[in-house]
Amino acid sequence: QVHLVESGGGLVQAGGSLRLSCAASGNTFSIKVIGWYRQAPGKERELVATIRSGGNSNYAESVKGRFTISRDNVKNTVYLQMNSLKPEDTAVYYCNAAGVGYDLWGQGTQVTVSS
Prior knowledge:
This protein has no helices and 11 strands. By secondary structure, it is mainly β. The termini are far apart.
């Protein structure tokens, strides 16, 4: 069993930065890929960035060059550093962890970027 707890959302002006954290607990060795998705009002949930157990990362085109995903294996925490934020980045951000036989979501954290 894996449990995810997100933190770090908030309100920021356009051009600002935020860092999201996703702390995983439980059977973290079973996680194959972990990352962030987001859902804006009236839109479908979309991939933001993921990182695999082997270290390969993947980004949505809309955030490349602005967002960076990283992980601390000692703390079992994944981070999403978001720079040069835009109003269109406003959404609820969800942490997701997937392994053999499971696909888990965190509770979500709100990110609001004002213009």
